[in-house]
User: What shape does this take?
Amino acid sequence: MGVRYTLKCRECGKDWGNIPLSYCQECLAPLGVDYDLPAIREAVTRDDIAQRAANLWRYAELLPLPEDFRSELAVGGTPLVKADRFGKKLGLRHLFVKNDAVCFPTLSFKDRVVAVALAQARAFGFEVVSCSSTGNLANSVAAQAACGGFQACIFIPADLEAAKVINTQVYGAQLVRISGNYDQVNRLCSQIADRFKWGFVNINLRPYYAEGSKTVGYEIAEQLGWELPDNVVVPMAGGSLITKIAKAFGELIELGFVKPRAVRFFGAQATGCSPISHAVKNGLDELTPQKPVTIARSLAIGNPADGRYAIKMIRDSGGWAEDCSDAEIVEAMKLLAETEGVFTETAGGVTAGVTRKLVEQGRIGRDETTVVCITGNGLKTTDALVGQYELEEPIAPRLAAFEDFQAKRLGGIAVGA
Amino acid sequence: MNITVHIPTPLRRFTDGGNQVQCSAANMAELLQQLEQKFPLIGAHLKDQSGKLRPFVNFYVNDEDIRFLGGNQYEFKDGDDVLIVPSIAGGR
Assistant: This one.
């Protein structure tokens, strides 16, 4: 039996089989993965899935994996947190946080897409894997290349957060820093991918890679007891994740795994890089590229590849897109940490901050089930919090010194019984 | 006005394998016209049925996205390096 998927042009529909290719050679539009869902329906049930380990491979039939592919790498399977404290602050009764800040192995949702891309990289015989990245993808490609036995060559904008640079180098990847923003790195990588026979996870392997994002959607549905939520709030950089969560929900409905429900999709961007939210808010079908200026560097893509699809999908779902300022991002990072114990990176601050705005605007209702997608870990962007907290002078290791400190500084905290 | 247009791999089957083409266009409209004159089969791939440039095709001038330079209003300068990138990919 062969595989149950094939690459098809998302515009003209031409079938390209299964090859490392990101765009249609006829109309130059992006390719997507098309599945034989009736065959998949015969092959797997919800009960089958429930028996398997709690990671993304439990959805293997719904992913574009090579025949007989097996992996022991426990990617995905992240918690869906019932966020009552955060919800109370926002005025929501059924708020959940999908916490990919703790995704294995590199603490971002990018581990999901890389896992699928490298499965195909091996099948296609690539020895070198590569990517253009704002950091999280770089970390994940570097780590999964290391344990998968690939060489990695990774391209990043020169001004990335120090933690994301170290988190790439430590795995032995060759890092190439480019003097320019992500869109320039990405354009250069398109040129390099055209010349070098490398497996670029987000260029020639991109259709497969993007499918890994669907597992966020499968997990949300399964963790809600095979139900779909009313609303999902998703950060947007290239605009792929939000469309893939929608694709995942659509597949689950078609497979009969969940009852049909019209889920509204809400996209979140930083105001300093908001080409998609700008288009949605202004009723435009086309986006205008921007030059990003934001602390949310992992979302700083001014020319988003899936922007057009994200705009249409958000609008068709009855959702909306919003953006928030750098100050609002930091405030929301702190709020999520203080209420739920979830320390997210700046991108998560964007998502949390935008969720708050959407509630204030009345776009998300108090009694609806809402899932906020947190995609990255705060330990990678601690520089965004520099200056936010005072560091007290150290005190002597003596009880009297602490009593003195307590009287002066901790007046609000009770001594206890 | 002499400009150099770099042709990506999938379009080279229409340019006799050539990876760059010299043009003398003053703007985008003229550039598309000249490319089509030189290589009649390329037009259907760059433009849709109504003759509009396909939305997924990106043009860069001296490494800058032409949309930041005024797009269709941009006037090419002598020596400009023009790059065609089909369907920009990427994602963080």
Observations:
- The two ends of chain B are 38 Å apart (CA to CA).
- Chain B touches chain A at residues 8-10, 45-46, 48, 54-58, 60, 63, 65, 67-68, 83, 85-92 (CB under 8 Å).
- The mean pLDDT of chain B is 91.
